[in-house]
Write a structure and sequence with these properties.
The protein is α/β, with parallel strands linked by helices and about 450 residues long. Helix content is about 40%, strand content about 15%. The protein has 17 helices and 14 strands.
């Protein structure tokens, strides 16, 4: 009898200890004590325990997540030294490397060495598959790391590769897709022009094929190559199960400064500066009214939407006519989803009243740190919404550095945009590490 009570006391002490350790500690503990854990999912999930940020540069990602000042200062010095010596610290592969590796070593070695999660982590996730639409045009290494972070065997992934992308990029993604049965490249490719209808059409192509896929997914999420998740698959699924049948679509009354985008006719013209060779340009021709009496809302090209909403959007005749009408507008995807989500009859309909407006800070879709709202001297104090960017700015958007990781992990959003591994790969590596550690904890405590 004494032994029995002693056993119970030891179990209770163990539980109290496990509750007290950090997520990173728990993840490491699970690696060494896996045989003692009862979850049937645990043995299928491995931590990212060999990333250069920790192995070679001795940067503790858990300390980065806590925004530890001494770790952040050490990291800053190492990055400055690396840039001064013109060294790029990246764990991404170049385009050709995927093709060479997969064709030489076969798929089994690829999914094992790249540490893909090839088994479900929980029953909850098995019963709630997600669909992803990727619209990408370059850097197979960065795309592959995004895919790997999101990949789960019960989900389904469509990758749209820009028609003008390099053949090495296309081949790399095609070879990756051949190794993952629920990943495929869009059969219809668009020549994507920035801020034009072609960007929206690329997503529509993937959405159509995803609706026809055998996987009966519950929600669709669209991403670009410079996104990275801030939540694990299970964390997203847990929220969406309770959120159903609502959508996460940014939507607010269209600002007057953007009305010309949809009231005037735009044409694709050659660009003589910047990173784009062609851009939409406004003409003097006024557009006809849309085919139905609709209120224009502003929003984002990115959404988290139910299967029912996507199906309705692609096959409702009125909505199809709105898509067609928007072909000669500027950035129609930043208006279409925001507007049709507020129309009566839309699955997950949200009332058009201003009370139901949702901006990027309120939506869960993705967090973007805008330069004009950062906590810096140039911005009026009452306009400062975000802390200072620790990376650099591209088109007034922060391209995150490792110093942003702690702040990002405190946000409620599913994704963050933008990342550039060629500038600061530690940010992506630490997010990879922290999210996988959470995944290990989930897998080893799943029921």
């Amino acid at each position: 009898m004494v032994d029995k009570y002693l056993f119970y006391a030891l179990c209770l002490a163990a539980i109290v200890y496990l509750k007290s350790v950090s997520i990173s500690d728990f993840a490491l503990l699970s690696l060494y004590s896996r045989q003692s854990l009862t979850s049937s999912y645990c043995r299928f999930t491995k931590s990212h325990d060999n990333l250069p940020v920790e192995r070679d540069f001795h940067i503790n990602c858990a300390a980065i997540a806590r925004e530890d000042p001494s770790t952040s200062k050490l990291l800053e010095l190492k990055l400055l030294r690396a840039r001064k010596e013109k060294k790029i610290i990246s764990s991404s592969w170049h385009d050709e490397a995927f093709t060479h590796f997969i064709r030489a070593n076969k798929c089994a070695k690829f999914v094992n060495e790249r540490n893909y999660v090839m088994h479900s982590v929980s029953k909850e996730e098995e019963d709630f598959p997600l669909a992803y639409s990727f619209v990408v045009h370059k850097d197979a290494g960065q795309v592959e790391r995004l895919l790997r972070a999101l990949y789960r065997p019960q989900n389904v992934y469509c990758i749209h590769v820009d028609q003008k992308s390099a053949s090495a990029f296309y081949n790399a993604l095609q070879d990756m897709a051949s190794c993952l049965p629920n990943v495929f490249l869009a059969s219809k490719r668009e020549d994507v022009v920035y801020a034009s209808y072609s960007r929206l059409q690329a997503d529509l192509n993937c959405m159509e094929e995803l609706l026809q896929h055998r996987v009966q997914w519950k929600y669709l999420i669209n991403v670009c190559g410079q996104d990275f998740p801030l939540k694990t698959n299970r964390e997203m699924v847990t929220h969406l199960r309770y959120n159903y049948p609502n959508n996460e679509i940014e939507s607010f009354i269209l600002p007057g400064t953007k009305r010309s985008r949809y009231s005037m006719h735009w044409e694709i013209t050659k660009s003589d500066k910047g990173e784009y060779d062609r851009i939409p340009s406004m003409t003097a021709t006024k557009k006809a009214d849309p085919p139905t009496n609709m209120t224009f809302f502003g929003g984002s090209a990115y959404l988290v939407a139910t299967r029912e909403f996507i199906d309705w959007s692609l096959h409702n005749e009125t909505i199809k006519s709105i898509f067609e009408w928007s072909r000669d507008t500027f950035s129609p995807d930043e208006m279409i989803w925001a507007s049709i989500a507020r129309m009566r009859g839309a699955p997950g309909f949200r009332h058009p009243h201003i009370k139901w407006d949702l901006n990027e800070l309120q939506s869960l879709t993705r967090v973007v740190k805008w330069h004009s709202f950062e906590d810096i001297a140039q911005v009026p104090e009452n306009e400062r919404v975000y802390p200072k960017c620790h990376g650099y700015h591209k088109r007034t958007i922060c391209v995150y550095g490792t110093g942003d990781v702690g702040w990002l992990l405190r946000q409620k959003h599913f994704f963050a945009n933008k990342f550039d591994p060629n500038y600061d790969d530690f940010a992506v590596q630490c997010l990879e590490k922290i999210l996988r550690d959470r995944e290990v904890v989930d897998a080893c405590t799943a029921t």
